[in-house]
Each structure stands twice: as C-alpha cells, then as structure tokens.
Amino acid sequence: MSSQKVSLIEIEKLLSKAAAKFVSLEEAQYFAKAQIECTLFMYPDVNPINSAVEDLESWEKLKASKIEIQVDKSGTFLVDFNRLGPSLKLKWVHDKIEEKAKLNGIAMFGLNNSNVTDWLKLWTYGLAKRNLIAMYVFNGGLGTVPYGGSEPIFGTNPLSYAIPTEDDPILVDMATSESAFYKYSRALKDKHRMREGVLVDQNGNLTCDPVIAISKDKENARILPMGGGYKGYNIVLLIEILTGALVRSFMGLEKSAKYTKHEYGGLLIAIDISGLTDLDKFKSSVSKMCKDIRSQKHGDHVTQVIVPGDHAHFRAKKLRAEGVLELDLGIYEKLKNWESQK
Amino acid sequence: MSSQKVSLIEIEKLLSKAAAKFVSLEEAQYFAKAQIECTLFMYPDVNPINSAVEDLESWEKLKASKIEIQVDKSGTFLVDFNRLGPSLKLKWVHDKIEEKAKLNGIAMFGLNNSNVTDWLKLWTYGLAKRNLIAMYVFNGGLGTVPYGGSEPIFGTNPLSYAIPTEDDPILVDMATSESAFYKYSRALKDKHRMREGVLVDQNGNLTCDPVIAISKDKENARILPMGGGYKGYNIVLLIEILTGALVRSFMGLEKSAKYTKHEYGGLLIAIDISGLTDLDKFKSSVSKMCKDIRSQKHGDHVTQVIVPGDHAHFRAKKLRAEGVLELDLGIYEKLKNWESQK
C-alpha cells in the first residue's frame, strides 16, 4: 500500500475536524491529541491512526446511533456504545471517571457493544497526566487457551496501566497472552515459526508452528497465557470475566468464532492518588524507585534495565521532534475527504 | 516439632474465644470461621492457623495500640493498623467495603503498618460469598528482581482474587514472582536446585542454585517475576506501587533489607456485580465458562484442565469431612492458654 509523509500538526488538525462532525469541538480536539500521543508511543511498529479512522467511520456509518448510559452510580458508569467507536468519547469518559474518582477515591467505567478499543494506552495515559492511577482491560476474540488446555476460550486480554511520576508516567500496554494476536497473524502469513512457549497444538502440547496452532474452528489461534504457566492463566481469566459478564458483554464461548468487534468489552478503573496519600510524596517515591530500577546491573539478555514506558516515551520524543508520520494513502484520503465535506 | 490432632470444631472455638479478648464476639467468630476456611484450602502444604495465632499475639502484646482510620471516603478507606494483626478486623473490613461497594459499584480498602497479611485468600473469599468480585494485593519484603535486573527491589507481591459462580467461587492466591518466597527458602535450606527460569545471579543471568541467587545484602533472594519476562515484571511493579506509595506504606528500597512486617502494605478492591449487571446472569455465564474450561482436552504436562480454586475446594471438602487438623503443640498450647485466661 502506498503511503505519504504528513506532518503531526496536519494529522491532528484533520482528526479533530473529522471528529467535530460527530462530537463537540472540545471532545474532537481531545480525541485528536490523544490519538497522536498514542501513535507516537507505538509507531512505526503499529499505526493507531488507522484505528482512529475506523472509529470515525463508525460514527459516519451509524448516524442514527447514540451511546446509552446503562448504569450511573456515584463511583461507576457503564455504557452501551451501540457499535460506535468509543475513542471519540474519550474526553467525556475521562472527565466523568476523574470526577467520580475524586469523590470516592476509586471509580470504574465499563463499556460494551462498541467498535472495540484497539490500543489501550489511549485510555490510561491521559488519566495519569491528571494524577490518577489508571488501569484498563479489554478482551476481544478468541485466541488464548487456559493453562493445560487445547482450545482458545479467552481473548488475548490486553492490560494497560499508567502511573504518574515526577517525570513521564509509567506506561504499560500488553497482551496478557504470551503473544499479541497480530504477532501470531504475522507469523502465520509470513510462514515463520514462533519461539517455544507461545503456542500449543490440538492436544494441548507445545508447538512452534503457527499452522499447527490454528484452532479447531479454523478462525482462531491457540496462544498460551503470559509466561506459559498457571499464573498467567489466572490473570487472563480474571480479565475475561471483568470485560465479559461483568460489563454486560460476551466472554468465553459466548463470543462468535469469527472476530466480532461489538462482542468485546472493556473495564477502566481510576484511583485518585490524592484521595489516599500526599500526591508529591507519592510521585517522589515512585520516581526514586524508577531510578533505582534503571541503575541496576543488567543480564546478558537485555541492554539495560528499563521502567515500563521508557521505550515509548523515548520514541515519542524522537518522533515529536521529527514532526512527521507516514500515513497509508487510503487513510489520508479519508481524513482529507472529511475535511472537504461541509 | 511435635504436633497434635485437633478437631475443626475445637480449633474454631479456641480461635474465636481468643479473638473475643481483643475484638467483639461477632468479629471474633467471623475471624475464626474465615481462618478455618483459609486453612482448609491450603493445609497440609501450609497451615495458616500459625499466622492466625501470630495475629492474636500481636493484639495481646500491643494492648495499648488501636487501629487508626486515616481516610474514610464514600468509596475508599485507609487504615493504619499500628502493627496489630489485621485479620481480627476482617469482619469490620468486609462489612465496610461491602457497604461502600454497594453504594458506588466499586470500593477500595488500603492498609499499612500492620502485622502483615500472610494468606490473601482470607481477604477475598468471604467477599465472593457476599456476591462481590474481590481482588487483594500485598507486597512484603524484597525478593523479586525487575526484568533484566540483578537485585531484588520488589516483594513477591502476591495477588488473590475471588469471583462468585453458581457453585464455589473461583479462587486465586499466588505470588506474582515466579516462586513464592517460602519455596525459595526451602530450596536454600534443603540444598536443592530450583528449575531454570526462577532465579538470577549477581549479574542478572539465570541460575538454578539458590545459594548463588542470594542477594547482595545477603538478606534476600533474586527471584524473577512470574513467567520470567517483562509481562510478569509489569504486574509485579504495579502491585509494588499499589501496596507501597499509594497506601502510605514502603516500597522498593525504602523497605529494610531484613524482612520487617510493618513496612508492607495491602490494597483490597471490591466490585458489586449487581451494581453493573444482573447477578444471576453473571453467575450463569461464569459457571458456563468454567464448565467449558474443565471439559477441554489437556496437554501431557497436566492431568486435567482446571479452574483456579478447584484444587483448593476439593481439598477443603475432604478435610471438612475428616474434621481434624494437625496443630503444632506450641500453637495449640497458646490457644488453650487464651481459653484458660479469665
């Protein structure tokens, strides 16, 4: 696919203009800024601008749809997105969960029936900048087997968290399966084997061959939980339930074999640090620990001991200085098209 | 150490009588019942009655101490235990977090400066029986290295969660390091090697020798995070902060090299399922998924695919039917001594 270099300033402006057709200008600007930040953390490995455009398209396609608040308690809200892209409502969600967290110390937002949330750090990073601890989990599809098992019953169940420090927030965004699904798909497409400890065969035994790891229904993969053992399984199972039955979404074999976006759910938890302790003292302790971690002698298998997010922040600063990203031409044209619409 | 067979009924009665010297009768009975349940899940691998007695002793020794509520918001409370054993206040904590969770959908309890909480399922199981999802994390000591690192900076940071089903709750209680600390201590004492992927040496490289894995300060171990990779590290780090700086406790190198109980903190989160969705529908979905998990074909490395907690519930039922446990004579005598006191 051919692509084009576009300045960050132009991408942000185009995203904001497009989103403003569907949500308020303030929400649109917040969406655009957050999508750029998220992209800078991940590009060129993946380009979240593509997901941002998918979210915009869902609002264009489903003009008659509205999001529906199913629960609104002092510390909790649950939203049915009616298949709309949730990222356009990021500011609204952040404002509302921040207000509830400040009141109660902790607050929770659940979402179901949405156009999925592909990149979880989009949801957590902005809350850390507001001095909250944010944790977000999502399920999505079938691709992960239970420990000892032979067929996928869980999603790859990603987890993101973000924690304020005196400097950049600590930032995690990872599948809780041993491999993200897109890495499996790439291996299958490129016909290369994966390392030991990632995949199992139809009998539940280890394999490195992505073809042998295709599930019984041929739609999914047999990926192990993180670490390959029962501890990772315990984490994956917890997330499946928090993002399934708890938020009125689907989980386990309730989900269709074929990847079906609106069947997946998410749960965001925010903790107001200043509700429990002194914020400056908290940040100082966390920053001190980060420094202690980074100054450790490292083993031969790594080049340095890092704090989660270090690579992402480094990458973002470099890209911000360069000021341009490659966009697929199709994506760029869609954005230009929204701009040219009255 | 010599030991004696004692009936469950007698142990429960003795625990309850002892606790009633320090807290209300209702709290004492709740403490005794929960300690027995927790023990049935773990015995004979470990015997939590010993920790229950340690908690009782702390109340006897620190007669002038009182617990102090530092934060009490609608969804959150934080308690300084002034080195008292927190398990005697289990009913009070459960009542209070349940009330806050019902009001807000989610609630949080933090504790610091306590006589530690050795067995986390004591804190989560009772909440699942009240139809809440409960998650509890604790830090404790120094024993776990960051991914790629060479010196311990985290505790083994256990995590427990409990989730209601139509039958017995799902129940997890695990260190988020690759090995619990007591397993490392046993290997060191018994002079046996641990398997690959558990320990590192002073250069951050893998070792199976527990002697080589002793930390620089000679007080601790160099245990890897769960799974040995960066994903497990991300989980361990999150728990260190949630149970350290967030709850006004210590974390990382703020903790003494020598294991010092009152320096460790805990965080309990409870979610009111019925605040988000229909409770019966939730339980039915979870139970269906558990059934699907258990019916999977299993790999050669396990004898069956289980749901976390299956072994514990099986063990508890068997022991409940037998009706007796072995108690160390010293422990039994302490309990009898409290009984004989006016």
Automatic annotation (TrEMBL), chains A, B:
<dbReference type="InterPro" id="IPR043144">
    <property type="entry name" value="Mal/L-sulf/L-lact_DH-like_ah"/>
</dbReference>
<dbReference type="Pfam" id="PF02615">
    <property type="entry name" value="Ldh_2"/>
</dbReference>
<dbReference type="InterPro" id="IPR036111">
    <property type="entry name" value="Mal/L-sulfo/L-lacto_DH-like_sf"/>
</dbReference>
<protein>
    <submittedName>
        <fullName>Sulfolactate dehydrogenase</fullName>
    </submittedName>
</protein>
<dbReference type="GO" id="GO:0016491">
    <property type="term" value="F:oxidoreductase activity"/>
</dbReference>
<keyword id="KW-0560">Oxidoreductase</keyword>
<comment type="similarity">
    <text>Belongs to the LDH2/MDH2 oxidoreductase family.</text>
</comment>
<dbReference type="InterPro" id="IPR003767">
    <property type="entry name" value="Malate/L-lactate_DH-like"/>
</dbReference>
<dbReference type="InterPro" id="IPR043143">
    <property type="entry name" value="Mal/L-sulf/L-lact_DH-like_NADP"/>
</dbReference>
